[in-house]
Amino acid sequence: MEPLNVHIDLCERSYDIAIGSNLLSSIDKYLPFDVAGKKLFIVTDENVCPYAKSLKEALLALGARWCEEKIFPAGEATKSYDNLKAVHEWMLINNIHRDSVIIAVGGGVIGDLTGFAAATVLRGVPFVQIPTSLLAQVDSSVGGKTGINTAHGKNLVGNFYQPISVVIDTETLKTLPKRELCAGYAEVVKYGLIADVEFFEWLEDENAKRVLSLDPQATAKAIEVSCKAKAKVVEADEREGGVRALLNLGHTFGHAFEALAGYDGSLLHGEAVALGTVLAFDLSVRMGLCPAQDYDRVVGHFRDAGLPVCAGDTSAAAALRADIKVYKDIMLRDKKALNGKMVFVLVRGIGNALIHKEVPEELVDAVIKDFLNKG
């Protein structure tokens, strides 16, 4: 099967996303620079460092002047101030220059951390995204969002900094744990729920099972459709001043769940997004925006895909049983919040999302209360 290509049109910041099998074995075809003579910095994690080491060998064989990898622990806790400093120090000690290239090999955590480091070291060094998780392949590697987590919440420190290339090798998904694959699938479904009911119906029609079993054609199509959907939104609103916020369906609640869980691995990002999406649909139904049967379809689909739909489905159930005020305090720190008010991505039904700035607080309370009672 020939590799697929998705182009992100951002004028001088434009780049291509290559999607296919075994792309890393011919990596030079998908890099927009001549490897020969380059100084290359690879950032990765313990779970996928074999890919990084193989990549290093390939790049050195292609004539790279210098190429080394920096390996971090796997998990959300890696996106920290301390590790950002560690990346900066490693690069500076090894004499990084503005004509060097930084390469992120890993999931969304590594991509976000590496992108932020690339944006800030020497005030900006080119970087390449090589996402190895489904979540990163369909979401975090595309669009230029970078950042780290803090005690105050997820991704509250970061910036927008586009990669020069994204290389998606679907073979890397074969070593992904099933739980991680399911968590990434939540971000695939998101694109159908936001603005593509036909894609959601395609997933409902047995294709979710094909994607989760890594059928090559179904997986490539799901990634391509997701990347094209994100590309369209990013091209229209690169810095999230408007329509790009729609991509945060499920994230206002979801980021609160992650903060309460403490980024300790008991709740993966995609699992939190699935829970948050269930609550966003519930809130939309209560506001009279969305048919109740659409809520039921989403809950059923997530269940069938092995995703959590209530706190009790997760290892973080105890941590999620917090006071409603705690939830709202966290959600008010969400980046979409305006003038001391929570802003939500809601739906008029499957495939029809909207940004809502006037959600009655008592309905938010009721949704959270029911969620906690079910958990």
How does this structure look, described?
This protein is of the alpha/beta class and about 375 residues long. The protein has two domains: about 170 residues, Rossmann fold, CATH 3.40.50; about 200 residues, Dehydroquinate synthase-like - alpha domain (Dehydroquinate synthase-like, alpha domain, Up-down Bundle), CATH 1.20.1090. The chain has 13 helices and eleven strands. The chain has a seven-stranded mixed beta sheet, with helices on both faces. The chain has a two-stranded antiparallel sheet with strand order 7-8. A two-stranded antiparallel ribbon has the order 10-11. Strand 1 and strand 2 form a beta hairpin.
